[in-house]
């Protein structure tokens, strides 16, 4: 009984800190479910960054010129870095990085639905940067104010880089949209294919989002899925208009009263189908990650053997 009272007192103090916007740090007491929610979200975020390298990695060798190639290479490397910060953030919560990665490979852990769509043309590099990184920033800027310190701090650096990614994507789209008829068609086709999946990145509609309420009470999330999706639509529509591209939504209409756009129905069956593993590239993405782990085993073994040798040498010298 006493123990239960102690825990409810701890929980009360914990929520008080959250309500005062005091960051929770790794060694602070936290409810088990807060820890579990963070490990779930941050590890899935890490997996998304790592799997997210694949659709763009596909185009590094085929970038149209040296400048584009260097920029794309830098962007993909940034994503690897984001994955590493995020796996480190899960470790501050007591998670084991290898277990997290095994959960990705076994299909137990999710990653963003968007990376299960193929990148068919060079214009897709523009659409991914503009829309996918654009959606990622919209979601991640509020995460800089997340209640968990290490996640919030990681997001500050990640957002700066995502902002460069978004601009490089929009710049590709701008160049293509101002180019030949074929180039403009290619840009429009990429927008047509990536528009709806990008809106799905924000997660299910609020009424079907099982984690939002609790995550907002804990100030992990600062906005609901639908709020962020609306902000994304409102910011992106004028960007498309500015470069003469058309958002593929016949129902898109400015709503003066709400001060935002009304938009068409999202195909949630498609979303859940992709989340469950049946999207166009799910199998390919996970097979590629599994192979990368197998092929990298010798590097990890060699690094560990080298570290052991150095440790033994140090001990010998000290004795
Ligand atoms: N895909 O109750 P909610 C990037 C799952 S980073 C797959 O609403 P929550 C950078 C959700 O996990 C992109 N699954 O969940 C880049 C849950 O399942 P669970 C990734 C999804 O957590 C750019 C269930 O549905 N960003 O793009 C998706 O409150 C370019 C119920 O959903 C982050 O991860 C989805 N789209 O809200 C890299 C940001 N949506 O776990 C390369 C951090 C939902 O119970 C190239 N994460 N689910 O089995 C978040 O902000 C949140 O986790 C949400 C989902 C908003 C994604």
Structural account:
The protein has 319 residues and is mainly α. It has helices at residues 2-19, 32-51, 53-57, 66-91, 97-106, 123-140, 149-177, 181-200, 212-217, 225-242, 268-278, 282-295, 297-318; strands at residues 253-255, 260-262. The protein has a two-stranded antiparallel ribbon. Helix 6 runs antiparallel to helix 10 (225-242). The longest helix has 29 residues, at 149-177. The model has no long low-confidence stretch (mean pLDDT 96). Bound molecules: Phenylacetyl coenzyme A. Phenylacetyl coenzyme A binds next to helix 2, helix 6 and helix 9.
Largest sheet: 2 strands, antiparallel
Reading side by side through the largest sheet, how are the strands ordered?
A: 1-2
Query: How much strand content do the residues show?
Result: under 5%
Shape: globular
The assigned structural class equals: mainly alpha
Helix content: 55-70%
**Count of runs of 4 or more consecutive helical residues:** 13
- H/E topology pattern: HHHHHHHHHHEEHHH
Q: For the terminal residues, how far apart are their CA atoms?
A: 53 Å
Uncertain spans: none
| Mean pLDDT across every amino acid position | 96
Number of strands: 2
- Write down the Rg: 22 Å
What are the bound molecules? Phenylacetyl coenzyme A
Quick rundown:
By secondary structure, the chain is an all-alpha fold.
Key features of this structure:
319 residues, mainly alpha, 13 helices, binds Phenylacetyl coenzyme A
């Amino acid at each position: 009984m006493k123990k239960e009272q102690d825990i409810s007192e701890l929980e009360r103090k914990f929520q008080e800190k959250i309500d005062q916007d005091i960051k929770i740090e790794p060694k602070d007491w936290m409810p088990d479910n807060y820890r579990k929610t963070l490990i779930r979200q941050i590890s899935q975020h890490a997996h998304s960054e790592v799997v997210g390298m694949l659709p763009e990695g596909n185009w590094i060798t085929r970038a149209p010129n040296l400048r584009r190639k260097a920029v794309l290479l830098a962007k993909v490397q940034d994503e690897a870095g984001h994955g590493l910060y995020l796996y480190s953030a899960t470790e501050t919560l007591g998670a084991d990085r290898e277990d997290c990665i095994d959960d990705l490979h076994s299909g137990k852990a999710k990653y963003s639905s968007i990376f299960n769509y193929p990148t068919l043309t060079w214009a897709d590099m523009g659409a991914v940067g503009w829309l996918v990184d654009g959606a990622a920033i919209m979601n991640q800027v509020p995460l800089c104010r997340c209640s968990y310190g290490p996640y919030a701090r990681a997001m500050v650096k990640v957002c700066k880089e995502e902002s460069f990614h978004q601009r490089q994507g929009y710049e590709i789209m701008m160049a293509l949209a101002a180019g030949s008829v074929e180039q403009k068609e290619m840009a429009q086709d990429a927008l047509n294919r990536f528009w709806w999946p990008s809106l799905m990145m924000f997660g299910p509609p609020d009424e079907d989002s099982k984690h939002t309420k609790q995550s907002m009470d804990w100030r992990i999330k600062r906005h609901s899925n639908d709020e962020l999706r609306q902000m994304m639509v409102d910011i992106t529509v004028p960007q498309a208009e500015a470069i003469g591209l058309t958002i593929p939504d016949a129902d898109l209409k400015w709503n003066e009263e709400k001060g935002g756009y009304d938009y068409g129905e999202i195909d949630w069956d498609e979303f859940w189908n992709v989340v469950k593993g049946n999207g166009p590239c799910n199998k390919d993405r996970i097979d590629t990650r599994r192979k990368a782990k197998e092929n990298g085993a010798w590097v990890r073994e060699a690094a560990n053997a080298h570290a052991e040798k150095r440790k033994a040498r140090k001990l010998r010298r000290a004795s």
